[in-house]
Amino acid sequence: MESSAFRRLQTIAHHVLLLVPETSTNILNPNHSSSVELECVDSSSYPVIIGGMVLDVNGRPFTDTLPGTTTPGKIQHVSGGVARNVAECMSKLGSKPFIISVVGLDIAGDVLLKYWESSGLPTSGILKLQGVTTPIVSNIFDSRGELAAAVASVEAVEEFLTPDWIWQLRDTISSAPLLMVDANLNPKSLEAACKVATESGIPVWFEPVSVTKSVRIASIANYITCTSPNEDELLAMAHALSSGEEFCVDKKESAKRKRQSIESFFSLLKPAICVLLEKGIKLLVVTLGSDGVFICSREIPSFMKDSLKNTRTSFYEKQLYELVNESCPPKQYANSPCALHFPALPSSVVSLTGAGDCLVGGILSSLSTGLDMMQSVAMGVAVAKAAVECETNIPAEFSLTKLAAEARQILLSAKQLVLD
Ligand SMILES: Nc1ncnc2c1ncn2[C@@H]1O[C@H](COP(=O)(O)OP(=O)(O)OP(=O)(O)O)[C@@H](O)[C@H]1O
Ligand SMILES: *[C@@H]1O[C@H](CO)[C@@H](O)[C@H](O)[C@H]1NC(C)=O
Questions:
Q1: Which of 309, 317, 325, 411 to mutate to test the pocket of ligand 2 (most atoms within 8 A of CB)?
Q2: Where does the Carbohydrate kinase PfkB domain lie (predicted)?
Q3: Does residue 142 lie in a domain region?
Q4: Using CA atoms, how far apart are residues 321 and 331, in angstroms rounded to an integer?
């Protein structure tokens, strides 16, 4: 099933390439980023991404799995971890993210560091510790490609990515255009990172990771500028932030509302969304799988330190900014509070993992080139589409022209919703 989808995709890609001749400059590839160009980038303005680097061991059975026995299938080693995925995606879009993470001196750690070293990304924020096991997650998928079960051994991030290590890197954080933290960090480290950023006026993006870890937002909500939960994470976060109020949504009801209309589905999630906005989160991007995203805010934040706007230094960042700004002219969504639905474009799904991380990577890369929030979220949705259409977590390369054209289509079909 997967291989026929892949062949179909290759055929489509072939036709797209025939129809839209690409110049080599707008196909991004980390190997293109020459060392000369990297030297021109002032390291003090790297977007900072803090969280897990994980080696995923993925088992994809050929048929449905049965308990108590083995099922024939394919096993692959894939570099993952939310923060690592977001940073890799950003690097492939021309950004130079500075990652703060931890690995052990073992085989998994070597595999994870290889991409960073070969693409010239800074590794000085990655703690390399003797005697520590590099985070590993073993994923089992079902025959449709959805995650069926997973075992995570990611204690290294909880234990060794300490407030002290974050504190040692405070100069890098406080001169970044933006900071993303993933919820794999322990609560003390999350708070340390948020404090350093907030004291210097750096906006903070919180990536919830999982339903269980998403509730870590409770103790740092007042520092968070934006967060990007899926439906389940949104409900868990609202529950944690409202001292025990239940926000259960029946799965059947949720599916029924989705079939009815996007407005009907939105009204189901609205109470939870309002809790997060009342607790001080400026902007929410709620991910809806193949239905795209909701964007909700009381006031659209300027998600970039003003002094760092228009300091796009790399050739690729300039190109991303210009292509997107041209095909998606900035539009004022003056209505505040504001709630919008951005649909996802139809896609040929190959693998759903990495979609959420690419959405965030696409948004953060776009924001750090100086694009506005709406242009950036539209780019994020286009980047996430590319992620579901490839087998790896992060596509091997992006076509900026294609992404900009898709972002335009997404913005044109955006729908205004009522928040109050
Ligand atoms: N079938 C699909 N077709 C097109 N786009 C999709 C599809 N599934 C997901 N996406 C895009 O990816 C984004 C994130 O997907 P999803 O809502 O599943 O997030 P998530 O649960 O956080 O995913 P992940 O487990 O990958 O982190 C969606 O908002 C959408 O833009
Ligand atoms: C972005 O596009 C808008 C509208 O087309 C234009 O006015 C503005 O100058 C562009 N910004 C830059 C920096 O090119």
A1: 325
A2: 50-299, 340-391
A3: no
A4: 15
306-329 residue pLDDT tens: 555 555 567 888 889 999 988 888
Tell me, using a 6 A CB cutoff, whether residue 325 lines ligand 2: yes
409 lines ligand 2 (CB under 6 A): no
Reported in sequence order, the residue ranges of 47-145 that DSSP labels E, i.e. its strands, are 48-50, 54-61, 73-80, 98-104, 126-129, 136-141
Ligand 1 centroid to residue 360 C-alpha, Å:
11
Triad 293, 350, 19: Cα angle to 5°: 85
The ligand 1 atom at the shortest distance from the C-alpha of residue 381 is: 31
Residue 82 CA to residue 88 CA, distance in Å, equals 10
pLDDT value at position 306?
56
Sole residue written with tokens 């052990």: 104
CA 374-311-171 angle, to 5 degrees, is: 100
> What is this structure's pTM?
0.86
- In a domain, residue 122? The reply is no
Residues 6 or more apart whose CB falls under 8 angstroms from that of 76 comprise: 57, 58, 60
Domain that holds residue 206: 28-45+163-416
Nearest ligand (C-alpha, residue 386): 1
- Does some domain include residue 19? no
**Residue 297 located in a structural domain:** yes
Burial class (CB in 10 A: 0-12, 13-18, 19+), 74: exposed
Order of strands across the sheet that contains 73-80: 73-80, 54-61, 136-141, 147-153
Contacts of 395 (CB under 8 A, 6+ apart): 92, 358, 386, 387, 389
**Closest residue to atom 1 of ligand 1, CA basis:** 290
Q: Which residues pair with 180 in a beta bridge?
A: 49, 205
Task: Output the six-digit token pair for 332.
Answer: 């004022």
Number of structural domains in the chain:
1
Are 301 and 226 in contact, with CB atoms under 8 Å apart?
Answer: yes
Q: Are 48 and 97 in contact (CB under 8 A)?
A: yes
The domain that holds 324 is classified in CATH as: 3.40.1190.20
Tens-place pLDDT, residues 341-389:
999 999 999 988 899 999 999 999 999 998 999 999 999 999 999 999 9
Are 298 and 277 in contact by the 8 Å Cβ rule? The answer is yes
Please, are residues 64 and 145 in contact by the beta-carbon 8 Å criterion?
no
**What is the 195 CA–ligand 1 centroid distance (Å)?**
30
